[in-house]
Amino acid sequence: MKRTKERKDTGKIWFRKIGRGSFRFKGQIIKPNQKFQAYPGDIPPGFTDVVVPADKHSTEPIRPRVKPVEYKLKPRGGNWFDIENAKTGKCMNEKGLRRVDALKLIEKLVG
């Protein structure tokens, strides 16, 4: 015989799995930071610390904020320049470029 509960809630809400490891819920494997819908009464009491209600209005996963990449010109010698990633210091071109061509390439990379 299957147990039944009286549902006092109005409907399903969005939950987010926080922490490490996976969580089995009604035949599904819920992975870290994954969102899923469920009735609040269906979440086992032992898992209320790792399964938290998500923002009501958000259905998109949270994306980390990324700073825009900055590039700078580095003189190579004479009239030749390299384009360097300001954060990592990595050279973005193989051969030396003239100043005008290097500035055009920076505009393409920044987009």
Architecture blueprint of SSEs:
Blueprint: E1 13-17, E2 23-25, E3 28-30, E4 35-38, E5 51-53, E6 71-77, E7 80-85, H1 99-110
Outline:
The protein is mainly beta. It has one helix at 99-110; strands at residues 13-17, 23-25, 28-30, 35-38, 51-53, 71-77, 80-85.
Number of domains: 2
Summed over residues and divided by their number, the pLDDT gives a mean of 81
How is the biggest beta sheet arranged? 3 strands, antiparallel
Order of helices and strands: EEEEEEEH
The low-confidence parts are 58-62
Radius of gyration: 26 Å
Subunit organisation of the chains: single chain
Number of continuous helical runs:
1
Proportion in helices: 10-25%
Explained architecture:
It is a single chain. With 111 residues, the protein is mainly beta. The protein folds into two domains: 41 residues; 40 residues, no CATH class. The chain is built from one helix and seven strands. The strands form three sheets. The protein has a three-stranded antiparallel sheet with strand order 4-1-5, with no helix packed on it. A two-stranded antiparallel ribbon has the order 2-3. Strands 6-7 form a two-stranded antiparallel sheet. A hairpin with a 2-residue loop joins strand 6 and strand 7. It is rod-shaped, with a radius of gyration of 26 Å. The chain starts with 12 loop residues before the first strand and ends with a helix. About 5% of the residues have low confidence.
